[in-house]
Amino acid sequence: MDSISLRSLQSQVLVRKQHRFLPNTAIFNPRISYPFLFPPGINRHRKHSLPLVFAVSSTPTREEKKKMKVKPKSGRGKVGLNVCLDHQVEFGQHVAILGSTKELGSWKKQVPMNWTEGGWVCDLELKGGESVEFKFVIVGKDKSVVWEGGDNRVLTLPEGGSFGMVCHWNSTGETLELLPLSLDESGDRVEDDGHDESTADALEVETSPFVRQWQGRPASFMRSNEHHNREVERKWDTTGLEGLPLKLVEGDKSARNWWKKLEVVREQLDGSLQSGERLEALICSAIYLKWINTGQIPCFEDGGHHRPNRHAEISRHIFRELERISSRNDTSSQEVLVIRKIHPCLPSFKAEFTASVPLTRIRDIAHRNDIPHDLKQEIKHTIQNKLHRNAGPEDLVSTEAMLARVTRNPGEYSEAFLEQFKIFHQELKDFFNAGSLTEQLESIRESLDERGVSALAMFLECKKSLDAAEESSSVLDLNKTMRSLSALREVIVKGLESGLRNDAPDAAIAMRQKWRLCEIGLEDYSFVLLSRLLNTLETMGGANWLVDNLESSNTGSWNNPLGGLIVAVHQLSLSGWKPEECAAIENELTAWKEKGLFEKEGSEDGKKIWALRLKATLDRTRRLTEEYSEALLQIFPQKVQMLGKALGIPENSIRTYAEAEIRAGVIFQVSKLCTLLLKAVRKVLDSQGWDVLVPGVVSGTLFQVENIVPGSLPSSLKGPVILVVNKADGDEEVTAAGSNIAGVILLQELPHLSHLGVRARQEKVVFVTCEDEENVSDIQKFAGKYVRLEASSSGVNISPSSLDNHDADSVVKNLSTNGSSTVEVRGPDGSSGLAVKAPYSNQGSSSAGIILLADADAPTSGAKAAACGRLASLAAVSDKVYSDQGVPASFRVPAGVVIPFGSMELALEQNKSKETFLSLLEKIETAGLEDGELDKLCHQLQQLISSLQPPKDIIDSIMRVFPGNTRLIVRSSANVEDLAGMSAAGLYESIPNVSPSNPTVFSSAVSQVWASLYTRRAVLSRRAAGVSQKDATMAVLVQEMLSPDLSFVLHTLSPTDHDRNYVEAEIASGLGETLASGTRGTPWRVSSGKFDGLVKTLAFANFSEEMVVSGAGPADGEVIRLTVDYSKKPLTVDPIFRQQLSQRLCAVGFFLERKFGCPQDVEGCVLGKDIYVVQTRPQPQ
Description:
Layout: H1 6-10, E1 78-85, E2 94-99, E3 111-112, E4 114-116, E5 119-127, E6 131-139, E7 145-147, E8 153-156, E9 161-167, E10 179-180, H2 197-203, H3 209-212, H4 243-253, H5 258-268, H6 275-293, H7 308-326, H8 333-342, H9 351-354, H10 361-366, H11 373-390, H12 393-406, H13 415-431, H14 437-443, H15 450-469, H16 475-496, H17 506-540, H18 542-551, H19 556-574, H20 579-595, E11 600-601, E12 604-605, H21 606-635, H22 637-647, H23 651-663, H24 666-685, E13 690-694, E14 696-705, E15 721-725, E16 741-746, H25 755-762, E17 766-770, H26 773-780, E18 786-792, E19 795-800, E20 851-852, H27 858-878, E21 896-899, H28 903-910, H29 914-924, H30 933-946, H31 952-961, E22 968-974, E23 990-994, H32 999-1011, H33 1016-1025, E24 1034-1040, E25 1046-1051, E26 1062-1069, H34 1073-1076, E27 1084-1089, E28 1095-1099, E29 1105-1108, E30 1120-1123, H35 1130-1133, H36 1135-1156, E31 1160-1167, E32 1170-1178
Parallel strand pairs: 1-9, 14-15, 15-16, 16-17
Antiparallel strand pairs: 1-5, 2-3, 2-6, 4-5, 6-7, 6-8, 9-10, 11-12, 13-17, 14-18, 18-19, 20-21, 21-24, 22-23, 22-24, 25-26, 25-31, 26-27, 27-28, 29-30, 31-32
């Protein structure tokens, strides 16, 4: 279940959303035997026909009846066929039908079917009287096709009419029964003459969205109290349950009726919950209430007598608690998401429903003298008595079934009776909060101010016009309606922001519930509008149409889909999902839409820059949708599985729960719209969705994993491997996860010059990323097969390969011990990189315990600190250096000192822990991976070293160099990093934002850097390099902490094509940790010529956050994360600034390359007009 994602769902056909306020256009006979999966009242998990005893309307509201008539019957000589396959498939798969006629694809083209929670459906119009052969197929995420077994199905069609048909997978020999969709007075089959308007009108019984999602037992009419006879035996299984889930299931055991089940939920959400329990309680409640409201958890009578006012009172308690949680400062976005699932499941607690005797109209109806006695009895025992004893969701199902029956034959019952029954039906819908969107909105009209009334009127007018146009509506009309929806929703959300006062009167609380439901209903309706927008865009030609328009430099055709996406993202913000991120994306999309297309931006092609900029924001938007999908998958599947098993829910409902939640949300449509626009942008850029970090050619077995971690490869997998990796966080060490890893295909974006990218380059591992869904599907076809991966600046190719002809690149090293394979580790000046052979020597440390940065050298301070010391001297002369174009190479270096080698060992001696340390160090040399021995030893070493305190004279000396509250960064400078054969990029800790004026925090930062020498990754990395653990030691580099505008990483040799004429830079807003850590997203990526000054923009940044240090905040080792809006960043919007900065960085990089004598990997930042360089190391080749 965890494998589901929005990307995989997009490959399936979008279906009619089964949620509140969405019309269902099918019409069903109340009396015929009909096993379809999507009408209300059907048990979706049985293959046999069940009696359907109520009708489903084609309309969601009374006002819309005139606009949305019953679906027209098939014309003369045509047969309308509604096909349903009662079968579910794995996540990411979908079902199609193929057959012998043109309408069925002539056995060549798949006809996609639409997904529902209970099966797959499609509508066809076929020629009457002919014989049709067909079969169903399952289409996988990789576009593979699985045909059902057996002979072709054969269906002989009648001459005309409209029919429904249910099939079952792999049952090709089953009898195909056509069930007519037309009605006569007796409820049996009638001839379809196409002219019975009265019948059509009679069928327009309004069915609530609440009932359309019903999956419980169908309604049946009783003339005596037979409710107990209809009860089914339930079983519970509490094996393995504990805590809140166990409490809920135990509560359900003793809660037979609805009000007691609501009481179970109220107890789950008790206000005394700890914050850690709150999310779990909300999740359990949301799942439980959904299954109750859809009839999958049945409600029974228990012999008591509790009118609906009892239910209303409990609902008010639950609602108040939900509002209290929503208004807390520590409420998470996940909690907000789940709370929105609960609200629609609660009944109303308006004054008429909390009255001592609510819903009395049905009593008067049951005693009328103008209806037959049998009907009186049925109304009395099926609805009246049941409702007033033990009301439950099934009562609305029964009422709508009864309404369908009494209105089926015009004139059969008096208008006065029908009018009263319809009024009661509206009252009951109001009690269950089951009204249509229009009805819900009308219920709050009187509580709106002038602005709100105006917004409501505008939306209803747009909606009415759009509904009248049906599928012929234009993109402009759809966007206008979406904007009016947003305006109205903003008014409602603003009104709800004030929170619920403790002394709020009951009437105000009840109205607040209506406002809350309207706001949620508007979000649901935006799903419908976006679906129609997507369908309209696809009809116009989709991505190809957008690309064709751009060829003539016309961006006007892009404005409407971009406008729709802006509104769609705003809906997510209004729903409380990462509102700051949504606001930034909205601002960017709006800016790019208004900015338009220029022939040139600076010296670069305007169309390319426009597309690159838009792509960055679209990728950011898609990332937002994927994070939402991931949040749902973290929230629901485990609890659904647990509770479903315990409560006896059908396996199919358990399996499809999370997918249904994702598909049913506006997030799904946002993702689809993003995909369409990204497809068009990639075509403009002539991009295939690949990005090459480390070029090369390798062969190996293709194997997919979630993350790059030791143990992810099975021991049975021998020989070279090409990993397909779902996620990376930038801290991974590729060959530490497997010495036989020859290549990596990462399914997310990653900065080229991130630590992970640098390590892969040093380890000679071919590394590419892929973000295109079609490419991902193609890759997955090769899973488990031996393939050849070719990656270069011109593109990426994956093809089958022979086991006998794999590449020399695929070298296997042994990581289980020290290993026989070693790398030559040398310093930047060509000397041996391992400067300290005796790791416990503290040679070179001054009497004060520190070394000034200018005096740092490799033997005492490590290659990193030594390079920084040399950088400081080079900075002094850089003001006099210029490029061939006259661009200055000037830079500065932050002031710093070094806590030299031997200081950690001295602290161990002072702490009397040296013997323990040596013992652990000896064991770690040969510790194995499989039994967890290495992990245990690493943890013990880190714990020991983290407890150390640097000598007091060191702290005092640093305070003299950096007086006051100067902010510092504490960095590693090991003797096994920043070397020509071993960069160890990002392997060891850096702790920002500390001050010696707070000795506790500062000392902790130093000991954390020392301890990072013995992380699992660091130990395995040294093993891979053939470096003994006892030869590794750590110095600490302490420098002035900068709070930069931008941070950068430079490679003075192009990492993708090894072109020595260009410097490539990756730039991020704020601190450089965003770049180095592999945070999801892309940096600004630019290339600048060393000799001609030519600047090429390769990518625009889309990291969601920047890290900054607040001068006013505490020096506690923490940083602040701020959401980035790139529409306000000069590097994105100002081509002149981008060109000038790129050329300056190039000049600095080229200067350092010449001074150090080899290509350099340079890290630094921009603060105001100054460039600072904080580190340089030999660039891995």
